[in-house]
Each structure stands twice: as C-alpha cells, then as structure tokens.
Amino acid sequence: MKDHNVENGAAAEVSRRQLVKYAGVGATFVAASPLAAAAPAVADAGDNRRHGGGSRGRVWRAGDHHVHSEYSGSYDTSTNPPTFRKGADAVYPIVTNAIMAKHFGLTWAMCTDHGGPTHSKVNLEQAYPDLLLSRQLVPDVLQFWGMEFDAPALDHHTLMIPHHKDEAQQLYELESRFAKRDAFPADPGRDTEAKMIEFLKAAKDMRNKPLVIAHHASRSATGLGVYGQDTPREFRNGNNVAPDIYVGFEGAPGHQAGPLNGGARGGYGNYPTHGGFDQMTARVGGLWDALLGEGRRWWITATSDSHVHWTRGGSDFWPGEYSKTYVLARQDYADIMDGLRSGRIWVGTGDLITSLDLTASSRHRSAAMGETLTVSRRNRTDVDIEIRFRPLAGRNANGDHPEVRRVDLIVGQVTGPSADLDSDTNPTTEVVARFGPRDWHKQGHEHVIRHTLRNVETDLYARVRGTSTDEAEPLADGLESPWDDLWFYSNPVFVQVR
Q1: For residues 174 and 177, what is the distance between their CA atoms, to the nearest angstrom?
Q2: Which residues pair with 407 in a beta bridge?
Q3: Fewer CB within 10 A of the terminal residue: the chain, N end or C end?
C-alpha cells in the first residue's frame, strides 16, 4: 500500500519547485521590463491614516479582486468527467500574478478563475494548492481565495471567500451547488434568477460570509440604459435578499489596455465605457445613483481582469499596473474584507492619486466613506464636506506624472426604495461643485478642498470624482490611450436627517 502522505508531500515539493521557477520568471520579467523603473504608487499612501474609533492601524491598501491565472482553462467534454486543460484563456501562474501585484503596489489580491463543467473539483484539487504555495512565496500580498462565479441568470461575479481553514471546501460547496456552468451534463435549471436568489440565501446563512460583486455589468448592454445580462431589477432583488453579501459592481471594469492593441476599453464592444468606467457608474444620476438614492449600501470597485498582458497580444494590464481598488484597512484578511463590505473604498486609474478621503461633518460629528452622519431636523443644518487627496509624487507605470485637473462633488437625495425595480435614474443627483487647482490648498503631502452644503433638510449622500482631463462629464471611450484619460471615484458618505 502506498503511503499517501509521502506521495502528497512529494507532489507538493514538485509543485513548490515549479512555483519557485515561475517566481523566478516573474522576477526576471520585472527586472527586464521598462516598467521596473516605476515605483509602486502605494508607497505614498502608507502615511495616510484616518484616526478615530476602530481605525487604529488602518491605511489605504490597494488591491484587485478580479485576476485570472492559468486555471482559467478549457474543457474536453468528450470525456466523463470532462478533462481540464490549463492556460487556454488566461496564461499566468497564480504566483506570477502575485509577484506583479506586489511590484505595482498592491497589498492584497484575489485569483478569480473562470468556471466550467466540474470546475469546482479543479479549483479544489489543483488551483487551491498552488494558491497556498503562492501565499508562501509572496507573503507581502494577501491572496484571497474565490473565483469568477458563473452567476445564475447574470454575467460573471466575484465570489470572495473569507480566509479560514475551510475556505477551499466553502468555495467547493458554493461552486458545485450553484455555479451555472459547473453541472455536467449541463443543467438549464442552474441559469435562473431563482437559482441566484437561492445561492445568495445560502451564502447569507454561512458562518463565514462571502462577498459577491458584479463584474463588467454593462459589457453586454447594447445602448445607454439598454442593459444585457445584468439588469437593475436583478441587482435590487439580490441586494434585498443578502445586503451584506451582494454589495456592488465594478465601477471600472478590467481589460483597460484594449485600445493599445486596437480594441475597446473593457471589452465593451456594443456600448462603450466612459473614461474607463461602466455606464452604470459614469452617468451622473444613472443606475448607481438610483441605488444609492434608495439608501442601498452599494459600492464600486476597479479591477484588472488580467488574462494576458497587452505586450503579449492581450488587452490587459497587470494587477495594479493601471487600476486599483483602495480599502481602508489593516493588513489583515478579515479587515480588508470588512472594508469591502462596508464601503471604505475608493478607486482610481493610472495612479492619478494615491489617497482620497471624503468626510461629512456637522456639530462635532463626522462620517467618512461608507458611513452615515446623522443630523437634527429641528435646526436647518449645514453639513461641511472635506475632500483630501494625495497626488502621485513620482511616475506611474507608463512613466507619466499625471496631474489632477478637476475634482467634482456629486450629491443626491435618499428617498427610499423605488416602486419601479427597473428604474436606473436618480433625478435629484447633480454635480453641486467643481474644483480646480485654485480651489484646493496644500496641507503636507495632501490637497484639501472644503465645501458646505447649506440648510440640509433631507437625507442625502455625497460622492467625489476627479480627472486628469478637461471633460466636464466623462466622454464615451474610443481608441485613445487609457493613460491619457484618468479618473478616480470615491464611494459615498451618507447624511441622515432625524
């Protein structure tokens, strides 16, 4: 009889040697690349701490929750079970992605490979052991476990699993039971909204609660407000069922390097992105504002969706090379996940800035992104808005020193749930103030903007965006270089009048 412990240990050592080899390849690529001269922008953000209750040790930590490895492969369905082949869709080992994420200033990342027939076993038996070894080889990057979930009736979603000893089994359970492409033979009953609701209910009841974030939500849209696989109704229904699980969508999708090879930003071939951002986010008073206007805690992120780097014929940047999702958190799996769940998030492209704080305050009380400031209805209350951002001190991965040309303060009313589940507008939302370089002052390494909302009598939210361009509103994207069209967006702070 074989000693399976010895056999498994030998296999693990072979895998370790392979990963070390891949790690060396990744390090060689970094050293040989002209990108090596670009200092990781996150280094600037390390001193940017927000003080207050429960925030000790929290800084803005850049990450990416949508990255593909060689385990986004293909399947030979002539065999039963299907035979999985690595590297058909994405090509890099998990550890290579981690090395590049670290190089470009990320402190957390997540491998989100495509599913397929019986892929739950591939994840469990092949990909997860490689993730464990990658964690050992690149310990400076917290590497979450999860996948690009084949959401029933919807486009792809992040399914992020909390870091715990049974994380692999938790993903296996959810993927094998609910991912619409995992069944073999195919099961049409997997691809219904009812199945998606069943999945969210199961996730909500788990002790270790996962996170679900929609990917490239309008990539299948055929026009402005003419949605495809993902619809406002489905977002509302899912968020109603599991508001602490189903928490947002990618504001800026991946595949941003598409124009560098003659393609569309984000792979949005029907209706384009605007400034690299999905129409659901970029349009003031659009779907994101409609959801926020209902009081939903619905957040945006920005990712690479890295499959194949653009210099090798793909449409992608490396994790952190162009897009970053910043979370205010300690360097801790649980706290980063809590930040994502709670909306302590801002996003940016091209390292236009390296930190962003948005605060609403009144009468010695204050709230920041993802939080709620409560003010009294008895007095006509002013609410002070403070915006702090830190521009990039050096150069970004393209060798540029980008500059912020404008910052916009956007405010909308919170009026409660909409009777129309298909509604994608909030007519109360508007840009209430625009600020240029003459409107902010320097305080240390940060630029500070202050604005007062006078006589606040209704519930509202405030959010911020900024740009390197002179566009009053982000224009529909063509084949311009993404490096010439940079934006950052905050998540909202809420004001409640009581």
Answers
A1: 5
A2: 435, 466
A3: N
Taking the C-alpha atoms of residue 259 and residue 22, their distance in angstroms, rounded to an integer, is 29
Residue-wise pLDDT for 311-338, tens only, equals 999 999 999 999 999 999 999 999 999 9
Record the pTM: 0.93
**How distant is the alpha carbon of residue 224 from its chain centre?**
22
Is domain 4-352 given the CATH code 3.30.56.10 in the classification? no
- Pairing status of strand 59-67 against strand 108-111: parallel
Phi and psi based region of residue 351 (left: phi greater than 0; alpha: psi -120 to 50; beta: remaining): left
- Report d(CA 232, CA 420) in Å as an integer: 10
Separation CA 411–CA 389 (nearest Å): 19
> In whole angstroms, what is the distance from residue 437 CA to residue 405 CA?
7
Report how far residue 163's alpha carbon sits from residue 148's, in angstroms, rounded to the nearest whole number: 17
Backbone angles phi, psi at 343, to 5 degrees: 85, 20
**What are the distances in angstroms from CA 123 to CA 4, 56, 76, 85, 109?**
21, 36, 17, 13, 17
Q: For the chain, give me the number of helices (H) and strands (E)?
A: 10, 22
User: Would you list the domain boundaries of the chain?
Assistant: 4-352
Q: What is the dihedral of CA 223, 226, 228, 233, to 10 degrees?
A: 150
pLDDT at 26 over 60: no
Q: How far is 215 from 156, CA to CA, in rounded Å?
A: 6
Asked whether residue 16 carries a pLDDT value surpassing 60, the answer given is no
Direct distance between the N- and C-terminal alpha carbons of the chain, in angstroms, rounded to an integer:
72
Give the residue from 83, 66, 70 showing the smallest Cα distance to 130.
70
